[in-house]
Amino acid sequence: MSNTQKVSANKAKEWNTFGHMWQKRKGSPLVPSPQALKLHALNFRRAFGKRRGLHWLVLGATPELRDLGLKLGCEVTFVDANLDMILKMNQLVAVQNRTREIMIKGNWLSVPLAHNYYHFVVSDVSLNNLDYKGMQKMVRVLHDLLLQEGHISLKEVMLSDGFECNTFKENLSRYRRGNFALNDFYLRARFNTFWKQCYEKSTKRFAPGPVFDNFKCFYAEGVLSKKEFYDLYQFYNLISHTILQKSELEKLLGRYFTIRGVSQTDSDTHDFYPMKIFFGKVKK
Asked: Taking CA atoms, which of 24, 43, 164, 217 is between 20 and 30 Å from 76?
C-alpha cells in the first residue's frame, strides 16, 4: 500500500467516527455556515459574474457546496475517498435535479481529473485533512486542474499569526456571558487554549484527544456544569488535522495563486477564529 493510500485509509477511518454527527448537520463546527456559503457565492460572482455552465469542483462530499454550485448554474464534480461518507451526504442534498452533478470516489491526489478544465474549486476544511506533503502537492494539483481564469475559494483551518492563548476559564466566563456561541467556545478550546497539548510541530498535526481529556478534568473539578460538559462533548471525534499559521498557508497558496482575499467565515469576530476562506486566482 502506497503512502497516499495509507493516508486515505486513515482519514476514512477517522471520518467514520464523526460521520453520524456530521450527517445530522447540527452541533458540528465543520459544517459550512450560511455566512460561509454566502462568501463562496460572492467569490464566484466576483470571478465570473452571472455566467452559467461553468465547471465547479468540490473537494469532498459536502452537500451544501454541491447544492450551491448547482444553484449557480454550474456542472458540479465532487471527489471523496470515503464511500460511506458519500452515501450519508447524498441523503442531505437539497437540490432535486442532480443531472449536472458528477460523483467521483477517489483520492484527491491521485484521481485522474481533467487538467485545465475547472473554473472554480471550493472546499470546506479539505486541505487540512492531508499531511503536510500532501497539502503541498494538492495546491499544485489544483493549479493544474484549473483553467487560466480559474479561481479557488477554500475554507481551511489555520492558526492566527502571533495569537495569544486565553485560559479555559476565561473563555468559559465569556461563553456564559453570551459573548460567543458554543461552536466558538469549542473551537477556542481546540485551536487556542489547548493547542500546545494537541500540536506536533514536526508534522504540523493537531490531535483532538487532549481537548476532550481536558473537558473531562474540568467537569470532574466542577468547573464545567453537567450541561456544559455534555454540550461540549457532542463534538467528540478522532479527526486530526494539518494546521498551518495564516502566513504559512498564504505563502503555500501564493506559489500557485494570487490571493484576492481572506475572509472571516463565522460568528466569532472578537479576537480569535481558526477558519477562514482563502479566495485566489490561478497563476499561469
From this structure: 24
Strand partners for 279: 153, 261
What dihedral angle (degrees, nearest 10) is formed by the CA atoms of 40, 44, 46, 52?
-150
For cell 475572509, the residue is 263
> Helices then strands (H, E): number in the chain?
12, 11
Structure confidence by residue, pLDDT tens digits, 229-248: 999 988 887 788 899 988 89
Under a CB-based contact definition with an 8 Å cutoff, are residues 43 and 261 in contact?
yes
H/E stretch holding 153: strand 146-159
Cα separation, 27 vs 15, whole angstroms: 16
> Which of these, 72, 40, 33, lies nearest to 59 by C-alpha position?
40
Strands 241-242 and 205-206, bridge-based pairing: antiparallel
Cβ(76)–Cβ(102) below 8 Å: yes
For residue 220, the SS3 value is helix
pLDDT digits (tens, 9 = 90+) for 90-127: 988 999 999 999 999 999 999 999 999 999 999 998 99
Question: Other C-beta atoms within 10 Å of 246: how many?
Answer: 18
